[in-house]
Design a protein that fits this description.
Number of strands: 7
Structural class: mainly beta
Strand content: over 45%
Distance between the termini: 27 Å
CATH class: Mainly Beta
Bound molecules: copper (II) ion
Length: about 80
């Protein structure tokens, strides 16, 4: 399992909406821990995460459920 895309780039100051669908048969979440954002998705579920990209930098995107980060569910949000 993985995030698709693994890398998301946005401009600093942007109001960002990420739309997600869990196409796997297990629960997954989408977390940008350093921005205090997390969304849990059941199999087949869709949802949205919204945040303000205030400060330039790289922010880790990860599935925080056990084992998935090591399995490759890790990406990056780049704020330019
Ligand atoms: Cu996961």
């Amino acid at each position: 399992m993985t995030f698709n895309p693994l890398r998301v780039e946005v401009h600093a100051g942007a109001r960002v909406t990420v739309e997600l669908t869990n196409v796997d048969g297990e629960d997954h979440d989408f977390a940008i821990t350093s921005l205090g954002k997390k969304l849990l998705l059941k199999p087949g579920a869709a949802g949205k995460v919204q945040f303000a990209a205030k400060k330039a930098g790289e922010y880790e995107i990860v599935c925080t459920l056990a084992g998935y980060k090591d399995a490759g569910m890790v990406g990056v949000l780049v704020v330019k």
